[in-house]
Amino acid sequence: MATIENTTDEVLKLAAAHFKVPREQLSADDDFFKKLNINSLQALDLLTRLEQHFRIELPDYELQGVSDFRTLAERIQSRL
Amino acid sequence: MLDLRQYDCLGEALRAAQESWPDETCLIEADRDREKARLTYRQFKEAALPIARALEDSGFGSGSRAAILMTNQSKWLISAYAIFYRGGVLVPLDYKLTPEEQLKLLAHSNAEVLITEFHIWRAITKAEGFDAFVVRTVFVTEAPAGADLAGAKRWEESRGSGDPAFVKRARQDAACIVYSSGTGGRPKGCVLTHENYLEQCIALTALYPFWPGVRYLSILPTNHAIDFMVGFIGPFVCGATVVHLRTLRPEFIRDAFKRYKITYMSLVPAVLKSLERGLRQRFDELPPGKRKMLNAAIALNRWLTRAEPHPSISRKLLPQVHDAFGGELRALFVGGAFTEPAVMRSLYDLGILVGNGYGCTEAGTAITLNDFKPFRPDTVGKPLPGMEVRILNPDAEGVGEVSVRSKTVMSHYLDEPEMTAETIIDGWLMTGDLGRVEASGHLQLLGRKKNMIVTEEGKNIYPEDIETAFEGLPIKEFCVFAANYLWPKRSMVGEKLVLVLHPELGHPVGEKIVTELAERNRGLANFKRVSGYLIWEHDFPVTASLKIKRPVLAEQIRVAVSREAVVPL
User: How many domains does chain B have?
Assistant: First the structure.
């Protein structure tokens, strides 16, 4: 089973690839709305990408109140 | 549809609809590509009455208040009907607020019952301020087996014995308390009567009728005023079907259009824009030859529909586009915030009608709506039947504050007589929006008189509600304004928030403070963040009770500095 560190790292990698930014510019505590300059719909798009990668289902409401990569990774981790 | 003039309250009208169309499908709930529930009007009634009975058993009756705090799903509507059946007042709350904000509005509304989903309830029980929670009865849906419910009852197992008693209400009685803002500052609870809703429903269906067989796709949460009316009351008094989709992801929305052959759908500008962008991207991927043919078909459609829409022609000319929308789409409704005319125009040219409108919770949802005769995306359409729209103190170009008088205007703000008196004057609702009525009757919006912004997702943000986030900094005083309020421009776009800082004498705003500001700003929900700050070296004008005189300060700033002086944060 992946550790939370692995999951967070995967999330950062996928987010960087999805929004075409260098991976090294992103860190776990970044606010992804601000850092990637995206709105809530674009964030849902990322969620779909993450679901495909981790082979899990994340309901839209799991993104409620989440704005940093670390918390997002925790939500994913709890469903792995 | 039912003749709504015959009924005095929503419970009565909804009950009559269930008797008129028992075997029609009223509700379909889909989660992604799975259908989770499908109910006829009879089954809907059978699902709602046990909840009404459980409410009755908990002492809930005429005028009692019950809040619903749920995402977009069938149990929202079933619970709402149970509340109206018992003569209760419904308080629809936004599940997107923070648990602390939800607790604040629950307390303000004096709700004695809360109906919510397990994951929302779990967050509330962990929130600061939960120890002061006073709601007597809580029903929770979809709780996992063995979960700690913290005193709540399972919605699915709430079955009182025997039939509940129906409680009739009068037209002037309160039906709902809808919060139009006030998560940070003073809560604004709009008290809307049964008459407000019945009249609004009559006005809207005069322009866009529903009937058995119409399928409405609901993606907005039902607490949203538009979805409450167009995705619940409207279709339900006409025997139509509501399809709930529990996700906002574009791929599943596209899928639902086709699978359910959707007739109408409501959305907010942000979603409409993403839909239009998706279409354009797919057009751009076409091989040059096909792209050329498509462009020719679009040009021809534009010319043929220049005076009015011709859906059957558009469907023949552009079958690939219309098939993607299920082939039976009549219109998309967009509201809640300003919609860019270009986006609507581009969809209209494809034969996809976007009925944009204008309204506010205080006016009972919609005031104006586009009727496509002809299509005027640069306006918000004409007043609906029964709405009187007047421009107050118009300037030389006819621009002034939009005010409205109609049977749909709310009764009052809950527990706020002063705020009510400032908002409804001699029966006219002051909207705070600036506009002009053209000779053709179309209303054109040209900005806001109020210190507020509306996001693309349709959220009203009152700058003063955000100030608590910046308290305790080593600054003499500060204040948040909407940029378009400080520097009015005749536009509905580019709305931003500006933080005005008055530093202590001899303590200029340095790097440390700016870092702290930026950090606190990041802690706010993305739509509440300020875009930059402005240094103001003078004392703020204040009232005798030391409240900032915002309009006076705004005027001083407007005269002294320009928009360019704002330092981005």
Answer: 3
The parts of chain B modelled with pLDDT lower than 70 are 181-185, 457-458, 492, 494, 544-545
Q: Which of B264, B290, B318 is the last residue of a domain?
A: B264
ipTM of the complex: 0.81
The pLDDT tens digits of the residues spanning B334-362 come to: 987 788 889 999 999 999 999 999 998 99
| Same-domain pairing of B43 and B171 | yes
Model pLDDT, residue B154: 96
Q: What is the distance in angstroms between the Cα of B107 and the nearest Cα belonging to chain A?
A: 21
- Examine the domain organization and report whether B213 and B291 are in the same domain: no
- Closest by alpha carbon to A58, among B342, B459, A66, B215? A66
A59: closest chain B residue by CA: B247
Interface residue of A38, A64, A67 to substitute, partner B, most B CBs within 10 Å: A64
Considering only alpha carbons, which residue of chain A is nearest residue B219?
A: A60
Q: Report CB contact under 8 Å: B248, A44.
A: yes
Within a domain: residue B455? no
Rg (CA), chain B: 25
Helix A40-54 vs helix B250-260: crossing angle, to nearest 10: 90
B386 and B433 in a single domain? The answer is: yes
Domain with B129, as residue range(s), is 4-264
CA quadruple A29, A34, A35, A38: dihedral sign: positive
Domain boundary among B414, B448, B482: B448
CB contact under 8 Å between B274 and A41, yes or no, is: yes
Is the pTM higher than 0.90?
no
Helix (H) or strand (E) holding B195: helix B194-207
